[in-house]
Each structure stands twice: as structure tokens, then as C-alpha cells.
Amino acid sequence: MAKSAGPRAAAGLSVAGGAPAASAKARAAQAGRIAAIFARFEAASPHPEGELDYINPYTLLVAVTLSAQATDVGVNKATKALFALVDSPQKMLALGEDRLREMIRTIGLYRTKAKHIIEASRQLVERFGGEVPHDRAALETLPGVGRKTANVVMNIAFGAATIAVDTHIFRVSNRIPLAKGKTPLEVELGLERVIPDVYKRHAHHWLILHGRYVCKARRPECWRCLIADLCNFPDKTLLP
Ligand code: SF4
């Protein structure tokens, strides 16, 4: 008796190794792999946190602005004294650009950053009543605040499921791969598509910390990586 083609054929889908069936299977496998990766990150670190010190949304915005092309450790050193004096845009304006520049002079690009922070503080007071807006588009209108900074502030200060793609996330996402892309925005939009909703809130921190401490740029430490069996990077470092 001839074998029935089954419900797939009835639905117009290929049953003889055709592309639609094969790609649906590949997509399901990829989704399962990515869900498993984030389940491991969550099990290892249920409440991941960033490493920048801050007091409130405003000081977080300042710290993230200062962190461009600088290390979190270096930023924290400078902001310790700064945030003891300043925790609002009004106080930053009272401090003034010259004193701010002096207090952050150990951080790269400090002159430009001081200018941006003073101007952003002025706009926060004049346009937003001294509050940091809970809105990515509004944040991006502030001087020195790009999409990455806005995404970090939305995620950490306001609990939004945004993913700020920095150099670590860009590398890790292309390597594993989770979402491939040639620009941070391509990777960000790809990650938003593939990361299950339940993991989106913390995905940013898990991926940054993974890239910073394990999946390092020059020599990823694959021998101690908790997702090594789920990672497809062809050039793994298997021994210390
Ligand atoms: S196995 Fe290696 S390349 Fe893959 S995620 Fe882990 S550290 Fe990175």
C-alpha cells in the first residue's frame, strides 16, 4: 500500500527533505539551543548586576556616559568622590564644568564627557523637570547619550528588557552565535528576536559578564565555559 504523504503535504509543506520542513526544524533546534544557553546563565547567576556604581537613575546616566571607552573600575574610582557631592542634575550644574572636568580627569575623553554631562544636566532640568525620562527615544535626545547608553539606563534603572550591545556582547553574540550582525544595532535587533522573553531582562548582564570574564576577546576560556557544549564557535580554546 502506498504510504500516505501525511498532514504536512496536505498543508502544502514539503515532506521529501524540502526546504520549508528542514528550515522549520533548524529554527526549532536553534531556539532550543538559545533557551538552553540562557537557562544555564540564569541557573549560575539568577540576579546578575552591572559593575558600575550609582545611586539613582541620574548618577547611573552619568556613570554610563563616563564609561564609553573606559573601564568600569576606572569610572567607579572617579565617581566615588563625584557622587558624594552630586546626585542630581541641579547639583551637577551647581558644581560646574570646570570642577567636573577636574574630578573625572583620570577617565579617557574627559573633556568631551564633562561638556556632555553638563549640557545633558541642563536639558534634564529644563525639559524633564530634573528627572531622567523613562523613555529610550527621549534619553537619546540628550547630549552624549546614544542608543547603547539609553538601553543601559532603561534596563538597569527602569527594569526594561533592553539589550545594550557593547564590544563584549557584540563579540559573544557573533561567536556563539546567538545573533550575527555587522553592527551593534543589527546584533541588538537579532538578539531581541531570538532571546526568549523570560530571559530578556537580564540577558544584557549575562552576556557582558560572560564576555568580560570567560569569552574573552583574544583567548576565550572555553575549557571552563558553562555553555561550551552549546556553542558553535569553531576555534575554541579547549585547554588552559
Ligand atoms: S565555548 Fe568558548 S567561544 Fe564559546 S561561548 Fe564559551 S568561551 Fe566563548
Automatic annotation (TrEMBL):
<keyword id="KW-0456">Lyase</keyword>
<feature type="binding site">
    <location>
        <position position="215"/>
    </location>
    <ligand>
        <name>[4Fe-4S] cluster</name>
    </ligand>
</feature>
<keyword id="KW-0540">Nuclease</keyword>
<keyword id="KW-0004">4Fe-4S</keyword>
<dbReference type="InterPro" id="IPR011257">
    <property type="entry name" value="DNA_glycosylase"/>
</dbReference>
<dbReference type="InterPro" id="IPR003651">
    <property type="entry name" value="Endonuclease3_FeS-loop_motif"/>
</dbReference>
<dbReference type="GO" id="GO:0140078">
    <property type="term" value="F:class I DNA-(apurinic or apyrimidinic site) endonuclease activity"/>
</dbReference>
<dbReference type="Pfam" id="PF10576">
    <property type="entry name" value="EndIII_4Fe-2S"/>
</dbReference>
<feature type="binding site">
    <location>
        <position position="231"/>
    </location>
    <ligand>
        <name>[4Fe-4S] cluster</name>
    </ligand>
</feature>
<comment type="similarity">
    <text>Belongs to the Nth/MutY family.</text>
</comment>
<dbReference type="Pfam" id="PF00633">
    <property type="entry name" value="HHH"/>
</dbReference>
<dbReference type="GO" id="GO:0046872">
    <property type="term" value="F:metal ion binding"/>
</dbReference>
<keyword id="KW-0234">DNA repair</keyword>
<keyword id="KW-0408">Iron</keyword>
<feature type="binding site">
    <location>
        <position position="222"/>
    </location>
    <ligand>
        <name>[4Fe-4S] cluster</name>
    </ligand>
</feature>
<feature type="domain" description="HhH-GPD">
    <location>
        <begin position="66"/>
        <end position="213"/>
    </location>
</feature>
<dbReference type="GO" id="GO:0051539">
    <property type="term" value="F:4 iron, 4 sulfur cluster binding"/>
</dbReference>
<dbReference type="GO" id="GO:0019104">
    <property type="term" value="F:DNA N-glycosylase activity"/>
</dbReference>
<dbReference type="GO" id="GO:0006285">
    <property type="term" value="P:base-excision repair, AP site formation"/>
</dbReference>
<dbReference type="InterPro" id="IPR023170">
    <property type="entry name" value="HhH_base_excis_C"/>
</dbReference>
<dbReference type="Pfam" id="PF00730">
    <property type="entry name" value="HhH-GPD"/>
</dbReference>
<dbReference type="GO" id="GO:0003677">
    <property type="term" value="F:DNA binding"/>
</dbReference>
<dbReference type="InterPro" id="IPR003265">
    <property type="entry name" value="HhH-GPD_domain"/>
</dbReference>
<feature type="binding site">
    <location>
        <position position="225"/>
    </location>
    <ligand>
        <name>[4Fe-4S] cluster</name>
    </ligand>
</feature>
<keyword id="KW-0411">Iron-sulfur</keyword>
<comment type="function">
    <text>DNA repair enzyme that has both DNA N-glycosylase activity and AP-lyase activity. The DNA N-glycosylase activity releases various damaged pyrimidines from DNA by cleaving the N-glycosidic bond, leaving an AP (apurinic/apyrimidinic) site. The AP-lyase activity cleaves the phosphodiester bond 3' to the AP site by a beta-elimination, leaving a 3'-terminal unsaturated sugar and a product with a terminal 5'-phosphate.</text>
</comment>
<keyword id="KW-0227">DNA damage</keyword>
<protein>
    <recommendedName>
        <fullName>Endonuclease III</fullName>
        <ecNumber>4.2.99.18</ecNumber>
    </recommendedName>
</protein>
<dbReference type="InterPro" id="IPR000445">
    <property type="entry name" value="HhH_motif"/>
</dbReference>
<dbReference type="InterPro" id="IPR005759">
    <property type="entry name" value="Nth"/>
</dbReference>
<keyword id="KW-0238">DNA-binding</keyword>
<keyword id="KW-0479">Metal-binding</keyword>
<keyword id="KW-0255">Endonuclease</keyword>
<keyword id="KW-0326">Glycosidase</keyword>
<keyword id="KW-0378">Hydrolase</keyword>
<dbReference type="InterPro" id="IPR004036">
    <property type="entry name" value="Endonuclease-III-like_CS2"/>
</dbReference>
